[in-house]
Design goal:
heterodimer, A: alpha/beta, Rossmann fold, six-stranded mixed β-sheet, three-stranded antiparallel β-sheet, 15 helices, 9 strands, 47% helix, disordered N terminus, disordered C terminus, B: mainly alpha, ABC transporter involved in vitamin B12 uptake, BtuC, 13 helices
Chain lengths: 307, 303
């Protein structure tokens, strides 16, 4: 509960945030654009410069980053998936996490949220460890991560987003039901409230997941491929919702697969391929050169293995 | 038949409580996709029962049940150790633990039965279950523990639903995955342990699995599924016990399982949500409407 009130206090701080934040992080892609090899080698030094930069911003009374990831490493058994991942996300931004298959995008989210063991590095949410900021972080897992045959209806799933607020061992009341219904309505799903979740289409299931995250009323949202396999109408509904969230001062990060739409929807991009290839405002960072480095580099490295 | 003596009433009440608790915990096992785990742990409880008896030298249910709980937990630890430290998958690990622990239990049982006085130990009733072998105290213990399981499940219903549907999201809301995992294992072991005397280690898993699966055919709500599974489990427990008392020395476990299987067959055919009959009717209605539409279109196409 403390953290919730704390979140309210942050709103005033954030009111003038986004613009300043975008400017602050706008400085770093220029450094990164020096050249591919230099960037990869220097990712450690970039991190230091970045944190030095944000320290200046803080001294100047600017907004603090909502998310700081420093030197994050993670692996699956023998394969190293994340290597020295370092970046900062400022409040009021909408960031696409882009990279080829196996680049570690989902693993990055899971490792940040302590759902996957980290080999090293530090992650700070709102300046503190994840376990102290849990309720302020809304995670939307991949749709396929749960069994949709589970016997429950859409409203019930959205209600789960409120469990942290309802309190453990307590029953949800009518007020909570109305909040959940409101969240469903925002995703255009009000009429499906009582529908069995197994009878929903893929896009509708994704909207239910989004509604659950909305009900949670977090300050930072992390979404794992919310647009995978959904139709154009659902994509629009989801992206408009995310933009409303950003306009309300929330911060959103989305694992995204479709390079075509990055520029339409996102103001920031994090190009990832095991490590951060480039990160910053879409306009300056999302260039054919950086995309080729994120995707092409992967293919080249794969060649000797595949033949 | 024991008629309606005081003792018979106690047997029925304790079997009802056991079946209810097993039905609830069985639903958790179903959605955790760990039905086989209940079978492995039930078999793994046998060595503990025999060792509990051998240590004391006489029959004391609390001690034997503590032994059963200890060896079931050891089985669970062994399964997770095999899974995490080798390339062996969980189902294989369960198969290994199930057979090794059960083999060990039977071996110990053979040794104990040869000890002086061992032949009258009544230990054999733990294999197929013998509700009639229970004394009043045993039943009280059983009913009380089952009532605790029931209360725990009712109080934390919402948490279980969240944890079973989306454990990653549950952790994000601050619900400790480790705590829920431990609670789940504790519930499972407790139900198995209080059930093995009446149902037996071999068939105990059926009382956990069948009511949950049967309930799935009737409803699309998690709460209702739990309630129905509890009802089916309790019903099977009572019905099986009643039938087993008709013959002298008939084991209870097989009759309970047959009763549960009867409920399952009825659910499979007549279940309101996923039953074969309902599905067939829905399909037929679809085919009919398609035929009607085709005939109409053909009629229009004719000159």
């Amino acid at each position: 509960m403390e953290t919730m009130r704390d979140a309210g206090g942050m709103e005033s701080l954030r009111a003038d945030g986004p613009a300043a934040a975008r400017q602050a992080s706008g400085a770093e892609p220029v450094r990164l654009a020096d050249g591919p090899a230099a960037a990869r080698q220097a990712s450690g030094t970039v991190a230091m410069r970045q944190s030095a930069g944000s320290a200046t911003a803080r001294r100047a009374g600017g907004p603090e980053p909502v998310l700081q990831v420093c030197g994050l490493h993670a692996a699956y058994r023998r394969n190293k998936v994340l290597e020295d991942v370092t970046f900062e996300v400022m409040p009021g931004t909408l960031t696409a996490i882009v990279g080829p298959n196996g680049a570690g995008k989902s693993t990055l989210l899971k490792t940040m949220l302590d759902l996957h063991p980290r080999l090293g590095g530090e992650v700070r949410f709102f300046g503190t460890a994840y376990r102290y900021a849990k309720l302020r972080v809304g995670y939307v897992p991949q749709r396929g991560s749960v069994d949709w045959d589970f016997p429950t209806d859409a409203l019930d799933v959205v209600l789960m987003g409120l469990y942290g607020r309802i309190g453990w061992l307590r029953r949800p009341g009518r007020r909570h039901r109305e909040l959940a219904l409101g969240a469903l309505a925002k995703m255009g799903m009000a009429e499906y409230a009582k529908r069995q979740i197994s009878e929903l289409s893929g896009g509708q299931q994704q909207r239910v997941f989004l509604a659950r995250a909305l009900a949670q009323d977090a300050d930072l949202y992390l979404l794992d491929e919310p647009l995978a396999g959904v139709d154009a109408a659902t994509e629009r509904a989801i992206m408009e919702m995310l933009q409303t969230l950003r306009a309300a001062g929330k911060t959103v990060m989305v694992v995204h697969h479709d390079l075509q739409t990055v520029e339409d929807w996102f103001d920031h991009v994090l190009l990832l391929n095991r490590t951060v290839i480039a990160h910053g405002p879409t306009a300056s960072v999302f260039t054919p050169e950086t995309v080729a480095r994120a995707y092409g580099g992967w293919l080249r490295r794969k060649e000797p293995v595949t033949g | 038949m024991i008629g309606l003596s005081h003792n018979a009433l106690w047997v029925l009440v304790s079997m009802l409580m056991l079946g209810t608790a097993a039905g609830l915990v069985g639903c958790f096992a179903y959605w955790k996709r760990q039905s086989l785990m209940s079978d492995a742990l039930a078999h793994a409880a046998l060595p503990g029962v025999v060792i509990g008896y051998a240590i004391l030298g006489f029959k004391s249910l609390p001690v034997m049940l503590l032994g059963a709980a200890a060896s079931a937990l050891a089985g669970a630890l062994a399964v997770s150790w095999i899974r995490s430290s080798s390339r062996v998958k969980e189902d294989t690990a369960m198969g290994i633990i199930l057979s090794v622990f059960f083999g060990l239990g039977i071996m110990l049982l053979a040794i104990v039965n040869r000890m002086p006085g061992g032949g009258q130990s009544g230990l054999n009733s733990f294999i197929f279950g013998q509700a009639a072998a229970m004394v009043r105290q045993d039943m009280r213990l059983m009913a009380a523990v089952a009532a605790v399981v029931l209360l725990v499940v009712l109080a934390s219903f919402k948490e279980w639903k969240l944890y079973l549907f989306d454990p990653a999201f549950a952790r994000g809301l601050g619900l400790s995955g480790r705590l829920m995992e431990a609670a789940w294992l504790a519930l499972l072991v407790v139900v198995i342990v209080i059930g093995i005397q009446a149902v037996g280690v071999i068939l105990m898993a059926a009382l956990l699995i069948i009511p949950a699966v049967s309930a799935r055919y009737w409803t699309n709500g998690f709460g209702r599924m739990l309630a129905l599974a509890a009802l089916f489990g309790g019903g099977a427990g009572v019905a099986g016990t009643c039938v087993s008392t008709l013959g002298d020395g008939w084991p209870t476990g097989p009759f309970i399982v047959i009763a549960a299987a009867g409920i399952f067959l009825l659910s499979l055919v007549f279940g309101a949500r996923k039953g074969l009959l309902v599905r067939a009717m829905q399909r037929r209605a679809q085919v009919r409407s398609l035929q009607a539409r085709t005939i109409r279109r053909e009629g229009e196409a004719l000159p």
